[in-house]
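W.,

You were right to be curious about this one. When I first looked at the sequence I had no strong expectations either way, so I just let the prediction run and decided to look at it fresh. Below is the sequence, 203 residues in total, followed by the output.
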Amino acid sequence: MSHAIDAFLAGLAATSPLEATSVILGIAYSVLAVRRSRWCWVCGGLSSAILVYLAARARLPMQSALQIFYVVMSVYGFRSWVRHAKESDSVITTWPVRAHLGAWAIILALSAVSSRWLAAETGAAWPFLDSVTTWASLIATWLVVRMKLENWVYWIAIDVVLTYLFIAQKLPFIGLLFATYLGISVVGFATWLRSYRLQARPV
């Protein structure tokens, strides 16, 4: 246990400026997303741009590709939330259970295919977990853009896995970032759930 703690602290001491910047911007994204501020997308896009490089260097190719998607979605998310604000349509909605079941069936099917390819062609460190978190993150990001309550449940599960993956790949500061995301996701779910219930109350 002490060796693990020493290794973690040593990794933190060796954290690069890029990692630190990505962490700060990533936390800002999550906090602003909880508040439903469109500026979360600016912080998230910048953080993801940095993580494209860091994930590729850590031999997590699916995560690197995912960050490229995040950059694109940050532009779309910002424009979408600006439009919602102008139309006074900034309300939280939910997805039916059958939609979640369908989404997870697709996630697992795609993960089975992509993890086999990653293992054979790229030497990825964690092909299946890398794949599952990548495909699930695509769905979760879309749920954020559409202001679906359940996006936070997806992020809670994803953040648990990614915290482990990045620490295992000797990127402890990025692992700490995802551990922080986990806490923020719990708060985000509670905050959005409260707002959702208030919306449902008769005026």
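Here's what jumped out at me. The chain has a mean pLDDT of 85. And, maybe more interesting for your project: The chain is about 80% helix and 0% strand.

Coffee later to discuss?

I.
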